[in-house]
Amino acid sequence: MSSRVNLLAPKVRMNPYPLYAELRQSAPVSQVDPGGLWAVSRYADVITVMKNPQLFSSEGIRRTYRPPWISNYPMADSMLVMDPPHHTRLRSLVNRAFGASVMTRLEPRIRELAQQIVTALPAGKTVDFVDAFSIRVPIAVLGDLVGIPPSLHARLKQWAEVMTQFTSVGPEDTAPQERIRAAVAEAREHFEQVVEERRRAPREDLVSDLLRARVDGEALTPVDLMGFMFLLLIGGLETTVHLLSGSALKLQEDPALMARLRAEPELIPRFIDEMLRHSGPVHGVVRLVTDEVELGGARIPRGERLLLLMASANRDEAQFPDPDRFDLDRPGPQNLPFGHGVHFCLGAQLARLEARLALEALLARFTRLSLGEEPARWNVSLVIRGPTLLPLAAHTD
Ligand code: HEM
């Protein structure tokens, strides 16, 4: 490949996998547009980068969250953009609070909620599945984690939608900048109120646990806490929503697979793992090169940014035989869809739990899914891929 490819070209976003395969084959580490990022497309190279946070820094991309048009965006204070040792301290503090207790506490509630959501889906009528199904469990779980009551879940969803546009806003895009500033200010105000209330009257919930957490006698600072709550909003919602939308689409495309999962619901966790590998929501993760380095045959100068193409690594033929085939019997689980190394997804178990309970409920009620007349619409992003509109009908016959 001689000239730079544009990963945001509409044709590529429609189906990026053929281009990923070409990159793996002939230019496994190469500069792409937009922005001259170095795309890393092979499994082994992605793992190498993720194992070495000193040379391939997350902290180095923190300035992405500090553009001149906004001050104090809490994502800039989150552990996602920290390297060890700062990251290590924060991660151990939140690990304590975010352990198995979150899962145990949430499981019965998620199960009940999933059943209600699926019962409310009209049989045989086309609806937008993103709105009627995929977002429902993740938004309720997120609301619970950050202490935002159900009456404000619509706001929570709006804040997340506006803020996920953050990294694609240019210096001249004043209208979206204003929308983001307003959403950040509103979310911050609500989150601060929750923190204040839990400080005064702790409950059995994540924010109270975070306030109690100590490592070597040290607690989270108010800035750490706000950064973490914003990180949950950005990292925990859209990802899980896309996983569920992708799963519904897959079940629609493959009625035999849907029938098999209905007959053997114990295979649902394997279906989720293969979904994450084959069509997972996270396509790109960014790192900054702190010293000149050779990777995948390319020499990369210091200060350049890498785009780790997770969705390509997950289809690397050197790692997965016949990688484009969706294969429920593939040995698993595969964890790369959730990252690798120090930043390995904190919510991996929770995301799998949400997806399992939502799909169990869907498969217990409906026998097949069909496409609506209006075509699905897909988002445009280098880092996360999924439908923003998914017209589907669910049938009981
Ligand atoms: C980090 C994927 C759901 C919270 C990550 C990373 C990936 C990922 C690839 C690593 C980013 C990096 O290395 O820079 C996913 C996928 C999900 C999902 C595919 C769903 C299908 C969730 C959920 C939560 C969550 C439900 C919490 C509610 C986090 C946090 C981090 C993270 C806090 C940062 C960890 C750190 O920096 O140490 N996720 N995620 N994620 N994820 Fe997830």
Strand order of the largest sheet: 1-2-8-5-3
Write down the secondary-structure element order: HHEEHEHHEHHHHHHHHHEEEEHHEEEE
CATH domain topology: Cytochrome p450
Task: Give the percentage of residues in beta strands.
Answer: 5-15%
Task: Write down how many β-strands occur, each being a DSSP E stretch of 2 or more residues.
Answer: 12
Roughly how many Å apart are the termini? 50 Å
| Average pLDDT score | 95
Ligands and ions found: protoporphyrin IX containing FE
Largest sheet: number of strands, sense, barrel closure: 5 strands, mixed
Question: What Rg do the Cα atoms give?
Answer: 21 Å
Tally of alpha and pi helices? 16
Oligomer: single chain
| Helix-strand makeup class | alpha+beta
Shape: globular
- Pick out the low-confidence regions: none
- State the CATH superfamily name: Cytochrome P450
CATH top level label: Mainly Alpha
| Tally of separate domains | 1
> What is the annotated CATH architecture?
Orthogonal Bundle
Approximately how much helix is present in the residues? Answer: 40-55%
